[in-house]
Design goal:
single chain; 475 residues; alpha/beta; Rossmann fold; 2 domains; six-stranded parallel β-sheet; 18 helices; disordered C terminus; binds nicotinamide-adenine-dinucleotide; binds uridine-5'-diphosphate-glucose; NAD; UDP-glucose 6-dehydrogenase activity; NAD(P)-bd_dom_sf
Length: 475
């Protein structure tokens, strides 16, 4: 690094104000790039996918994230935000390089696939034209940063100084813009005085409104991130384990969770029992932690999280079994209306979606599954092209033998249960997210059950709107 006394931290990098590159412009990177532009920085987003770069350059976000298209359009138009496929252009442009590429679960293993992070970091380091800071943001197993540091040291061009630090991200899909502009905390792992000062400049806006900065070493920063997700996952599997007891004892897990939540040491969030967690983060992150903890000989974390994962996956099987039971023992040729495909509301992300997983399993058992999701039909169709997709709740429900609510979209709360009853074959509904008003549905004549409540007999049903032959399970 430059050693003369700079007037501002970024001047030590040769810049009056740090310019930012964001490598990987998916859910995390596109949001981070737009938020950095909103905070007043000149930003270049880099992605190896030319279609993504072309779309973002036009102000089009290739996925559904509330508020993000507006932010991207504003800053593409203001000239503060650019996108490119060319890492050479980005390294020449920027002083602070955020690594935001994917770290998916490796095929056939619980481990994280670190090839994208390694390649992105290498491509930045080897193309640096001036001093700069490489900031890992992707979620990685503990030890990754240290390994990347030695790779960077071996390839950075002669005469150029660089640091590699870790700044994990905690944004939630569906709330990504707000979470990025006003984060709960900023974790900075492995900083020197210089990189700390530059990062304080980069995050001046959230710091000014009181966002705490946690300074720590690289492994702690990496572990804060995966531990946060592991804790959230554990809360969900805990309540789903208690839900099983509630069912057996005739108690109500929703009321129980509300009562638990009043204890501020526990809190109400992430105590919604149901189909369990999915998405591009929680499942793969706890598995990567199981794997890494195992490698480190830390058996307690591995065995705890193994249980969390197993309980979570068993919720999917539970709902599949409930649907089979509601159909009289076999779903073969039975029509099942599925409400929800996304892994949660306010996103079109279907990565490891419990909803799609259940829908696909029932399809494989011979059911005629028709899925409606307000935003995720296209992404779901790309992943499961053989399933049938509807444009409305009514279309998915028409002639159904059972309806499954698998994602808790707000829209489903305004369904007119009485009107819907008129178009189904059998008025049976399984609310696998405990998101609907049971009394409203029961009053409209539906056999309604949620999860973690006293079981309701869903079968056998007397046909009311359809021919008897539809009810005879084909063996
Ligand atoms: N999605 C979230 O809500 C979220 C939140 C916090 C942390 N994270 C973490 O952030 C990381 C990214 O997640 P995501 O959901 O944004 O993934 P994503 O798959 O949506 O995006 C990754 C992007 O990186 C691009 N890419 C891959 N290799 C590249 C390279 N060498 N150069 C340039 N671009 C490259 C891909 O084309 C893709 O557009 C993961 O580690 C994830 O765990 C995600
Ligand atoms: O009480 C609850 C709360 C959530 N879920 C499910 O849990 C999953 C994950 O939800 P959420 O955490 O809101 O989604 P993500 O956007 O994947 O965000 C998580 O993963 C991100 C990526 O690592 C982190 O940055 C976030 O802090 C962390 O919340 C979804 O399938 C939800 O349906 C439940 O089943 N019950």
């Amino acid at each position: 690094m430059t050693t003369s006394t700079p007037a501002t931290p970024s001047e030590a990098l040769g810049a009056t104000r740090p310019r930012i590159s964001v490598v990987g412009t998916g859910y995390l990177g596109a949001t981070h790039a737009a938020a950095m532009a909103e905070m007043g920085f000149d930003v270049m987003g880099v992605d190896s996918d030319p279609a993504k770069v072309a779309a973002l350059s036009e102000g089009i976000v290739p996925f559904f994230e509330p508020g993000l298209p507006e932010l991207i359009r504003t800053h593409v138009a203001s000239g503060r935000l650019h996108f490119t496929t060319d890492i050479v252009e980005a390294t020449a442009f920027a002083d602070v390089h955020f690594i935001c590429v994917g770290t998916p679960q490796a095929r056939g293993s619980n481990a994280a696939n670190l090839s994208y992070v390694e390649e992105a970091t290498r491509s930045v380091a080897r193309n640096l034209t001036h001093d700069g800071i490489i900031v890992g943001k992707s979620t990685v197993p503990v030890g990754t940063g240290a390994r990347l540091r030695s790779i960077v040291a071996g390839i950075v061009p002669a005469g150029i100084s660089t640091e590699l630090i870790w700044n994990p991200e905690f944004l939630r899909e569906g709330k990504a813009v707000d979470d990025t502009l006003t984060p709960d905390r900023i974790v900075l792992g492995g900083t020197t005085a210089l990189s700390e000062a530059v990062m304080r400049e980069v995050y001046a806006a959230p710091i000014a409104i009181g966002t705490p900065v946690i300074l720590c070493d690289l492994p702690t920063a990496e572990l804060v991130k995966v531990s946060a997700n592991a804790f959230l996952a554990t809360k969900i599997s805990f309540i789903n384990a208690i839900a099983e007891v509630c069912e057996a004892a005739g108690a109500d897990v929703g009321v129980l969770a509300d009562a638990l939540g009043h204890d501020i040491r526990i809190g109400r969030q992430f105590l919604n029992a149901g189909l369990g967690f999915g998405g591009g983060c929680l499942p793969k992150d706890i598995r990567a932690l199981i794997h890494r903890a195992g490698e480190l000989g830390a058996t307690k974390a591995a065995s705890l999280l193994q249980q969390v994962d197993e309980i979570n996956m068993s919720q999917r099987q539970l709902v599949i079994n409930m649907a089979i039971e509601a159909c009289g023992g076999s779903v073969l040729n039975r029509r099942i209306g599925v409400l929800g495909a996304a892994f949660k509301p306010l996103t079109d992300d279907v990565r490891d979606s419990p909803a799609l997983n259940v829908a696909a399993a029932l399809h494989l058992r011979g059911a005629q599954v028709v899925i409606y999701d307000p935003e995720a039909s296209s992404t779901a169709q790309r992943m499961f092209p053989t399933l049938t997709y509807a444009d409305s709740v009514e279309e998915a429900a028409t002639n159904s033998d059972v309806i499954l609510v698998l994602t808790e979209w707000e829209e489903f709360n305004s369904i007119d249960a009485a009107a819907l009853r008129e178009i189904v074959a059998l008025p049976v509904i399984i609310d696998a997210r405990n998101c609907l008003d049971a009394a409203h549905w029961r009053a409209a004549g539906w056999r309604f059950t949620g999860l973690g409540v006293a079981p309701v007999a869903l079968t056998p049903m007397i046909p009311e709107h359809n021919s008897l032959s539809r009810l005879v399970p084909v063996q």
